[in-house]
Amino acid sequence: MNRQTVSGTILILLLISMLTLTINIQQVKATGTIYIRPDGSVDPPTAPIEQDGPIYTFTDNIYESIAVERDNVIIDGDGYSLQGTGSGCGLDLSNRNNVTIKKIHINSFDYGIRLHSSSRNNIAENEITNINHYGVELHYSDGNNITDNNIASVYYFGIGLHYSDDNIIADNDLMDTINGTSILVGNSRCDKIYHNNFINNSIRQAYVYSSYKIVWDDGYPSGGNYWSDHVTVDDYSGVYQDEPGSDGIVDEPYIIDTNNRDGYPLMSPWTGISGNLQILEPLNGQVIVGPATITFVIENTGEDVEFLEGDPTNRIDLEIEYSSNGGGWGIMFWSTSYYGLALSSGEKYEQTVVYDPSKYEKSVPRGFIGEAPYGEGTIRLVHWESLELGYWDIGEFGKTEIQVTFLQPAIAASIDFEPETLNLKSRGRWITVYIELPEGCNANDIEISTVKLNGEVQAELHPTKIGDYDNDGISDLMVKFGRANVVRSILRTGEDTLTITGTLIGKSFEGSEAIRVVHG
Q1: Is the dihedral of CA 169, 173, 175, 177 positive or negative?
Q2: Which residue has the higher pLDDT, 115 or 370?
Q3: What digits encode the pLDDT tens for the residues 173-220?
Q4: Do domains 3-215 and 277-407 have the same CATH topology?
């Protein structure tokens, strides 16, 4: 038996002995434990945790362990610490489902987070440091997402999977294990591990035993993981890495063992996505008369960004939202989860959609303010990240939004000018116009400040009057225009058609009348 074989055998025995030791260790609890009880209450109620329905948010640092006894909850550290004394378990999720743990600094425990016989949980955006055994440990736990965590300075294992299937381990920094490996996979199957950074781990970067169908990359060109002990040669590209030109993927796969390899190891640490998307068109404050074909222009003013087609958990949506008494109401136009999006820094993307507000009228819920889906609305480009549990959170790109007004197709109004013959040399002060709306509309609702002649001349705010100019039993609105302004807008003598436009409570109106224009 050669020296390499002996060394490998000793390593395996060491790892298995450490695994056996950790399974049989009786957990030593911290001096106190905070419980989230099955009824949703926090015990003790003096703990610095604020509850809002299923969401539990830290309001200060916590110096005790937390045991979760309720499913379908979100525990948000909001950047605060969960500080231990070197023993016990920071967060115990035994027998739990659909629990999200995020944005907590977990420090100095035997186990940072432990999932035993629990499924479909999310562990995201946490910092887990100075842990004796496991940063995150999964036993008989399937379908969990462990993403975007920083796990460092763990004595034995950064992440451990035991009899745990179909989990996703992605976007994590796993580094500086002291006497072990960053990820241990045992007796598990069909787990997907990609876009992680494995850096400076003491014995091995990763160790797998009695497991199969473990996937170590996200395909090409998305790539696999970064391995700090791998060669860094990138002369080729393509699915088979046989085409000239670099692509950010190491030309040779990273070999973990005979059954496990990362087919597309990354040349440099994975940094995720860090774009900055803005709406250039339509313009903020624009009035859009529907139905309308709207061309949206999106620009990435940050670094390169990519959202993969078919990924509903991390997406960009382009949507319209109206304001209601009970919250917003959105109409989604376009989503990267259907079509994908890749934008390099400074690149623009154009998306043309047809928006017909009348299609949504019957679906407008009760309690709305105004005349949605007409009226004032917000066009939003929002980055959504899934929290499972049926909840979504705005992701790192946040949202960019503009305010617009959507109007119905113009209502046909009857227009009467007084006088009907306009002498360009007259010294009169005003031109009077009577506006009559069709049945079902009220002249009192006309917004005087929006009334214009030929789209240029603004109606005077005073004097105005509601009456019945033509004695037909229908109210009309009298407005006046400055004669000098009207004369400047008329380009010819003879018969000319003048058009009056304006709005009333989310609707537009338009009417025209031919008048005679003379010069002297």
Answers
A1: negative
A2: 115
A3: 999 999 999 999 999 999 999 999 999 998 899 999 999 999 999 888
A4: no
